[in-house]
Amino acid sequence: MVLSSVDDSRSSRDGWKLIGETMRAQWKGITAGVVVGILWTVGKVAAPLLVRTAIDKGIVADDGQALLFWSLAIAGAGVIAATFTGLRRYIAFRESRWTELVLRDRLFAHLQRLHFAFHDENQTGELMSRANTDLQQVQQFVVLVPLTISNALTVASVAVILAIIDPVLTVLALGGLPFLNWMGKRFSSRLHVPAMAIQRESAELASVVEESVSGIRVVKGFGAEQGQTDRLRHEADDVYRESMAAARVRATYLPAMELLPNIGLVAVLGYGGHQVLDGSLSLGSFVAFNVYVVLLIWPLRMLGMIIAQAQRSAASAQRVHEILVTDPDIADRRDALSLPPRDRDHPGGEVRFEGVDFGYGVGAMPVLTGFELRVAPGESVALVGATGSGKSTVAHLLPRFYDVDAGRVCLDGVDVRDIKLVELRRAVGIVFEETFLFHDTVAANIAFADGDADQDQIERAARLAGAHEFICDLPEGYATLVGERGFSLSGGQRQRLAIARAILADPRVLILDDATSAVDPTKEHEIRGALAEVMAGRSTIVIAHRPATVALADRVVLVDEGRVAAEGTHEALLAGNARYREVLASAEVGPEADDGREPADVG
């Protein structure tokens, strides 16, 4: 599934649904924030009433003691408001950060459950944007919820008090609210489209940055810095264009929304001032009324900010929701089975491909057609074939990265579609052609599949992989940080660490997907010695094109056009099969005609 970048009528609804579901799970914390907000409102709303009393009973009545008493009461109300202001903001940020944490954990876990095809079809930068920028937008909305509720209570309370003080003045002060509400709705609908576009374009910008940084060696190798800079500028221009569209909407509506409360204040000063001069309104009530009107300006001004943030957050939540509602194509069946137990007499590792048909995607050209293969427990089989023949696809189907279109793949007599995924993938260890190491220590990379492995187990795996000696020569030995993707090490060193990682997992079946491709041919014998020791007594599928690596296997299978074309020992096929000789010859000639490196096998 390719994630959509098109706005639709469901965007806002689905986004709000996700936000609502998450907030309902936090009802206790949000309720606490509302309660604190109510207490804050009490302190804020009480102050003008105390000011009125201080003026009328202290200043106008010329009573010093009353003035002192009510002044202290005003100070007390201020302390209450200040105290609950801090507490209100603390709870609001605590709950919003918790919302972000819950959604990020949920999104990350779901991304890891999603099938390979999903990750094949969607850019890493796009997914990163949804897991970071979009979740931050949701967090910024949730933080406003308790603040908005307390502001709404303030507006309601002030409106009631104003009506009690003077109904006519109240109409003058609040008469623009219906128009303000109408403008707020128009503002919301107009802002939704550019808000969604900003998130979409920001994701595309993040994709360019991620690809440029991850592929910096390719960029520099081809002198393509200017091309990537142009791509970034194009995407940045798109973000700027959509941001300016949103800014124009804000510039159109926010000034009017801010002006209305101030117009009410001017009307109150004009009409109320004449009432004070006529004696129909006390000076204290007039001052209090104006304080209340001023008190309304900030909550009403925040209305525009809240609407803008709400629209952007709903758009972001929709983008997160789109991932969360994507069902994994590869998942455990309800009645998923465990693998048969293994012991010394029954080590397991039998692999069968029975009449397998497979193509990458609906309607795609078939990669495997009627593919048949059996690997006996403890046997090593090498798959040899031209690029695109389907060799690496075999490695993808056994651990169920993809499901077959027809036929079945079995491990120890059980269809892999019936095996619990966790058990299946722990039973199949893979050393990929492109070695990926994490920015962590050498020891942590080797123990990646088993975080509880002790140092002896780690060193044993490293020795079997022929990696122990070069690890000991590193500055910090096994505690050395390998750097991002392990590029501080040579290709052969990375490959040996990957082999050690697979060994430590102790799989029933080991798949070596062109595991010597990154190794200099002059050093290949070092890896071959390690591989021979690792493969001994373990079911192994070797995908290779170098004759010396192919010769390590007990049996060689020639794969051609998605089928098994021939099988036998390396020597027998070399002597009696012209197609086998042709495939090996093309693999040997290719590097000389290219740049001296082995060609990538993308079969």
Comma- or semicolon-separated keywords:
603 residues, alpha/beta, 6-stranded mixed β-sheet, 4-stranded antiparallel β-sheet, elongated, disordered C terminus
Structure notes:
Helix content is 63%, strand content 9%. It is built from 22 helices and ten strands. It has helices at 10-24, 27-59, 64-113, 116-121, 124-131, 133-142, 144-165, 167-174, 177-214, 216-221, 225-278, 283-324, 391-397, 421-427, 442-446, 455-464, 468-472, 491-504, 524-535, 547-550, 570-576, 578-593; strands spanning 351-358, 368-375, 380-384, 406-411, 414-415, 428-431, 509-513, 539-543, 555-560, 563-568. The chain has a six-stranded mixed β-sheet with strand order 6-7-8-3-9-10, sandwiched between helices. The chain is elongated, with a radius of gyration of 35 Å. The two termini are 22 Å apart. Mean pLDDT is 82; it is low at 590-603.
Helices, strands, pairings?
Blueprint: H1 10-24, H2 27-59, H3 64-113, H4 116-121, H5 124-131, H6 133-142, H7 144-165, H8 167-174, H9 177-214, H10 216-221, H11 225-278, H12 283-324, E1 351-358, E2 368-375, E3 380-384, H13 391-397, E4 406-411, E5 414-415, H14 421-427, E6 428-431, H15 442-446, H16 455-464, H17 468-472, H18 491-504, E7 509-513, H19 524-535, E8 539-543, H20 547-550, E9 555-560, E10 563-568, H21 570-576, H22 578-593
Parallel strand pairs: 3-8, 3-9, 6-7, 7-8
Antiparallel strand pairs: 1-2, 1-4, 4-5, 9-10
